[in-house]
Amino acid sequence: MALSETTRLQYLNALNVTVWQSRFTHESTAPFVESSHVVPTENSIPDSWERLRSEVTSCQLCSLCTTRTQIVFGEGNLNADWLFVGEAPGEHEDEQGLPFVGEAGKLLSEMFRAMQLTREEVFLTNSLKCRPPLNRDPHVDEIKQCRDYLQRQIALIQPKLIIAVGRIAAQTLLETHEKIGNLRGTVHLVENTPLIAIYHPAYLLRSLTEKRKAWQDLQFALQTFKSL
Ligand code: URA
Predict the structure, then answer these.
(1) Residue 36 lies in a domain
(2) pLDDT digits (tens, 9 = 90+) for 144-153
(3) Where are the alpha helices (DSSP H) in 69-210?
């Protein structure tokens, strides 16, 4: 049953949801960029998955188009309640054109299993649709150019809950430079959709001691989802 906007916001209030309003203006290596998304006008053609996918497929907005094998648009349920947003495709994703198919993806699938979710019922995508060479961190201008695609995916899916997988996704979606350690454990709001930030599985693979915190993040996400 769909909740009315007012009821939804009342629930979110009761959950102590943070409406993130940080607006940094200084230069930084962190990926936050001012939002540049287009507000549809009355005469604008409604967006569609076909249109969006074709735009992303032929995208040449940044230099990553010259080094990618192919774009990684995202996959899963187009009407998913859960939207997982990662950082950017890695080597395997770039080869296969699918998100989270490498080692980090395997751990993410384990996380889904722990949450009794399947890859088919969620939607998985990334902040960047093309692989940065040698898996370096995305550059600010790359995130800026790709940001509109992510926002359009969110608008088409209308998920109940967004999970920002890792620092880059969390900072991009929340438009902040805040550390992931400070962003996790709180329900944020992105255009009225609740968002939870979790550690990236690639980080967890390097830092096994953080696995307990990752488990807490998943419990928190499930508990939040149930209360929506
Ligand atoms: N890491 C990500 O953030 N996304 C992928 O698709 C793969 C690895």
Answers:
(1) no
(2) 999 999 999 9
(3) 91-96, 103-114, 140-157, 167-174, 180-183, 201-206
Count up the domains in the chain and report the number: 1
Burial of 126 (0-12, 13-18, 19+ CB in 10 A): buried
Q: Is residue 90 part of a domain?
A: yes
- What pTM was computed for the model? 0.85
* 29 domain-assigned: no
- pLDDT tens for 78-104 read 999 999 999 999 999 999 999 999 999
The range of the structural domain enclosing residue 156 comes to 55-227
Give the atom of ligand 1 at the shortest distance from the alpha carbon of 124. Answer: 6
Query: How far away, in angstroms, is 90 Cα from ligand 1 center?
Result: 6
Q: At 177, give phi and psi (nearest 5°).
A: -105, 5
Distance 192 CA to ligand 1 centre (A): 25
Question: Which residue among 87, 112, 129 has the greatest number of ligand 1 atoms within 8 angstroms of its CB, and so is best to mutate?
Answer: 87
Within-domain flag for 141: yes
Atom of ligand 1 nearest to the CA of 98: 6
Q: What is the CATH number of the domain that holds 143?
A: 3.40.470.10
